[in-house]
Amino acid sequence: xxxxxxxxxxxxxxxxxxxxxxxxxxxxxxxxxxxxxxxxxxxxxxxxxxxxxxxxxxxxxxxxxxxxxxxxxxxxxxxxxxxxxxxxxxxxxxxxxxxxxxxxxxxxxxxxxxxxxxxxxxxxxxxxxxxxxxxxxxxxxxxxxxxxxxxxxxxxxxxxxxxxxxxxxxxxxxxxxxxxxxxxxxxxxxxxxxxxxxxxxxxxxxxxxxxxxxxxxxxxxxxxxxxxxxxxxxxxxxxxxxxxxxxxxxxxxxxxxxxxxxxxxxxxxxxxxxxxxxxxxxxxxxxxxxxxxxxxxxxxxxxxxxxxxxxxxxxxxxxxxxxxxxxxxxxxxxxxxxxxxxxxxxxxxxxxxxxxxxxxxxx
Length: 363
Fold this sequence. Notes:
Elements lengths: L13 H10 L1 H9 L1 E2 L3 H7 L9 E6 L5 H16 L3 E2 L3 E2 L4 H13 L4 E4 L8 H9 L4 E4 L10 E5 L1 H15 L3 E7 L5 H17 L3 E7 L4 H14 L5 E4 L2 H14 L13 E6 L2 H9 L4 E4 L2 H16 L3 E2 L2 E2 L5 E4 L5 E5 L3 E2 L16
Parallel strand pairs: 1-13, 2-3, 2-4, 2-5, 5-6, 6-7, 7-16, 8-9, 8-10, 10-11, 11-12
Antiparallel strand pairs: 12-17, 14-15, 15-16
Helix pairs in contact: 4-12, 5-6, 7-8, 9-10
């Protein structure tokens, strides 16, 4: 932590240690000033870093066809203002990874001093990150961790926990039978993490469940057509795990309804459904008994801490793994990148009306 006194284990060597320290005071102080612990409050108050965090910031969205990303987009200007960040109007990459690289280059050519990007493809985004690094522009990744490339921080919930929470919920509701997970894009670390976590959890804890899978690439039409086909062959389906309610909720409910399989929770023949996102539409579906639960992915906190970390990065402040002052934990990924894993609670009929859930604050 910045400003912490250096102490030596062997007191008899203190004199020699102090002499050595005197020769390297500048280097040590610089290193300490640029390092902060997991607590964001400690970092802000430390005064570390050479810059002041000012300058234009570009914000690049992956898509705007999902209610989740629409909500995130709405939060961005509000959170930028609250964090005193001069954010430009958001740019939408329209689900096109190559367009996202172009968007990054366009923002860099406009002279932005920082970028907040929600990557579409965990691997492809490295080309854009390399461009930013060459220009000395820090990047904060939101929602998706890149496989390689330099970012100051990844702001993301624990996606492994998403799959595990869905597995735990369905496993307790369904003693045996078939369940399907409607997966995201497996080119994205999010899709891979959720899919593997769900699959592994079911195999380990609920071996009487049989997992079927639909690779849907975050595409609603793909989810609908493949679910329709799957139900034709498996009319005895007992449960569904949707990895993204923003794109899968409507087509899933419509497909079930068209086949006479949309039964309310508690009714005979009800198919238990767990989702991910925490959008208002999912909460309404829970209240109606159409789905059973969702994991609330924090759109508001993605925007808030995306802005916080880019301002810190432009001021050349850095972080270390550990707990934060906002109920999350910074971890170091296998790639060496740091990720602030924000809390993402399970929402059921028991807590769906909690006013603290961001999905209940959207107007």
